[in-house]
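Following the same procedure, sequence and fold were stored together, as reproduced here:

>
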Amino acid sequence: MQTEAFNELFPLFNAANPETLEWLMSIATEHDYPAGRAVLMEDAWGNAVYFVVSGWVKVRRHAGEDVLTLAILGQGDFFGEMAILDESPRSTDVIALSAVQLMSISAQRFIQTLFKDSQLHHRMLQLMVRRLRQTNIRFQMRHQPPAVKLANTLVSLGENYGQASNKGTEIFNIPFQDLADVADIGVEETAKIMEKLNDKGWIKIDSANQVVHLVHQKQLAHLAGKA
């Protein structure tokens, strides 16, 4: 991957200097995983930071025998940074939702890079604050109707990871259980709302190609209270 492409793909590196980008690319390790494969188990947290080159993953939390999807991440995002910063054990893992390509940088080298490049350090803090704000928004929406919460989740996925297509913004056809977990609603409610949105033409579920087209994102944003 060329330095410019690396910079454009990952918002984290928008402000990094060219020397930093070249160094990171030279030490990064590439990984390819099929759908359903465990990318990172809970006991492996803290070893490296991972960057999503392509595909979709989910972050899960274990509580006894129960498993809850906390987040869905796509192209251009990263994970594993919190574990290397606070050096605490984790009770979460990461699973590939689709075929996924990742790049990893060891914890020690990534922290060294943050110390050397103050712009990268600052950008990292900005993105972590943005994640915290998104978590706060989800908390504030806990009493909203299920359709509003699900629309907010779909719009956020489209804004953060969607790809433009002639049918609207394209996202992965995320399993209803995972969507339900992230939106904090029931899986049966999720199925009914998705079916209704599909019937209204606001979204188009293409199960054969494992994608969902957000056909009318403005209407979805209005439903989500974002417009």
Remarks:
- The chain has a mean pLDDT of 88.
- The chain has two domains: 3-139, 144-224.
- The domain at 3-139 is CATH 2.60.120.10 (Jelly Rolls).
